[in-house]
Each structure stands twice: as C-alpha cells, then as structure tokens.
Amino acid sequence: MPLSRETPYWLYPRWEEVIREVEHFFVERAARVRALLERFRGSSRAAFYEYDPSVEDWSPEAYTIVFGRREKAALMSESGLAGVADPGASLVRRAHAEGYEVIPLAGPSSITLALAASGLSGQAFTFWGYPPIEKRERRRFLQKVFTQASDMTQILMETPARSGTLFREIIEMAPRTLYLCVAHHLTSTEGFVRTQPVGLWEPLELPKAPTLFLLGR
Fold it and tell me: Residue 55 and residue 52: Cα distance in Å, rounded?
C-alpha cells in the first residue's frame, strides 16, 4: 500500500497483473484494500483475512481456506512493505512450509527510503520502532540509541502526535556532533528529508504525520 494517500500510488510493475489474478488477501484492515481493488479492478469482490493483533497472526481458519485449497494469495500491509516493520513474517513462514512460491512485490518502505535519502551508512543499521513511553525507561533507551549510533545507523519513530516531542528530546540529549536525519511524511507533497549534526538543528514544528528519525556518524 502507498505511504501517502495524497500522492499517486507507487506500484511494482507487475502489481496490476497480480492484483487481477488474486482473490485472497491477507491484510491488516480490509477497508483500504477494498478501495484499491475498486480502483484497479472495477470491483472489490474478494476474500479478505484481517490480522489479529491479540495473537500477532491471522486466524487458523484463514490459513485452512487458503493453504488447504492451494489458493493464490497476496499479503498487503497497511502502508509500505509487508513484513518489514509490519505484520507478515508468520504468514510468509507458513507459505514456505506449505511449499508455496513466495514473490516479493515491494511497495515503498519508509525505513529504506529514509535510509537511502539520509546520507547515513546503510551498511549496518538498527530499526527500533517506537521508544518507551515511561520517562525513565525512555531516557535510558535514547541514551542506548545515541551510544550505538557511533557504530551503526539507528532508526526510530514515534506516533504522529508525539514526533515533535521525540525530536526535542533528541536535540536536548544527543551528542552535538551526532548526525540526525528527520524523514517526515515521505512521498507526500509536504514531506521532506533533512540531515545535519544535532548541534545545528533549530527548533522545528512537525505537523502530525509519520516521521522517522535516523542517527549516525
């Protein structure tokens, strides 16, 4: 799925061909996928199996229907690239175990887009996801990230509403010479990617939109 709804869809060249063949979709939520199918197929008629966060997997019934009948199926993330900081690994492992051919059709991953545009090393990096919320634990976490940024690029994110808070924490706590990249609302017309030493960053108001923070040397 696209990262931004305001810009044209970024689609793998074979995407439309595949989307017309497949009738079974493993998704996080069905609503956006239905709209996408309506746009490209003229119909959203298909079988959708929604991810269950409580068990961090799809239902056994979904697996039985698809794999038991040897059906073609597609895995689609809510945005970006399924299985990369998004649900999907358990489903793909099951597909391998069932003898399926697994073909990745890569959508735009905010992690790799931000890393490619940051100017920081992509040879070794760590993606952390969201930092802890509790203040003491959060501070310890950020100090760990700053220390490890000397050896490899560190990537973390926050909810859109808290991204501004995380930006201020990094500016206040991180070593002045450490490089900070802010990758905001990637692929949208309002988005930007900017990298400079922590000590050169001025206060910045971040609108509520997905933002990644990368730290490195």
Answer: 6
Return the pLDDT at 192: 96
- Write the pLDDT tens digit of every residue in 188-198: 888 999 999 99
Residues 6+ apart with CB under 8 A from 160: 208, 209, 210, 211
Look up the pTM and report it: 0.86
Average pLDDT over every residue of 34-47: 84
pLDDT in tens, 95-124: 999 999 999 887 788 999 999 999 999 999
Q: Please give the CATH topology (third level) of the domain spanning 15-97.
A: Cobalt-precorrin-4 Transmethylase; domain 1 (3.40.1010)
HEC-encoded secondary structure of the chain: CCCCCCCCCCCCCCHHHHHHHCCEEEECCHHHHHHHHHHHHCCCCCEEEECECCCCECCHHHHHHHHHCCCCCEEECCCCCCCCCCCCHHHHHHHHHCCCCCCCCCCCCHHHHHHHHHCCCCCCEEEEECCCCCHHHHHHHHHHHHHHCCCCEEEEEECCCCHHHHHHHHHHHCCCCCEEEEEECCCCCCCEEEEEEHHHCCCCCCCCCCEEEEEEC
Segments making up each domain of the chain, as ranges: 15-97, 110-216
The topology under which CATH files domain 110-216 is: 3.30.950
Residue in this structure with the two tokens 């108001």, named with its chain if needed: 205
